[in-house]
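I trust your eye. Have a critical look at both lines of this record:
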Amino acid sequence: MKTKLEIAKNWLPRYTGTEIDEFADYILITNFPDYVHAFADQFNCEIKGEGKPMQTATNSHGLTIINYGMGSPNAATIMDLLTARHPRAVLFLGKCGGLKRSTEIGHFILPIAAIRGEGTSKDYFPPEVPALPSFKLHKFVSDKIIQYGQEYRTGVVYTTNRRVWEWDLRFREYLQSLSAIAIDMETATVFIVGHANEISRGALLLVSDMPLIPEGIKTAETDKMVTQKFRDLHLKIGIEAMTELEEKGEEIKHFRY
């Protein structure tokens, strides 16, 4: 195997237990196994890749969902391996921590950009290259959020590899100096690796915690509450936005900047 494409074609089925031609043209990626199970239950479709690093499910409407695991290296891996299929659009359904008082648990965020604090994206482009979504994809998602009468924010998300930082005053002050609206672990990676691979991409983030205040730090109990209360709507908006995009057949062109 001498090329990236040859490697991706060999590795995508190995990581997911799913053959390349079984992936749809439009793809949701997430880092929550229960999203895949909820998707499979809704469409009565098979979950593939149980026991593999990543799991998938594909419905009959031209949409696949993938649980890629957690963290920016795994996000980069799936965005690289998807070059074997080269989907028409990829939407990341993730959770994030709100960094502004204007963001509340249960709000949605459509990032206009992401700060590349995670390190992984440096293997793809110099730090000067911005991590940006495909804005036409976000327009479909935005319309769907409004249709459901939901609150959402736009802004810049800070992406980091760091865990258990909530106690660190210096890091917290650094975050506040960035004017970022939220913090997560994958958005910048999805945007940059999507850009490198010429894959149209976007992110719909659910605010799951408010980590700058002690009572807002995520716990097992609060995470369970957020999942029970907001997961189905989060998934529904992603499914319907991508399905509508597929049905309209609009091209989301990738432009190099």
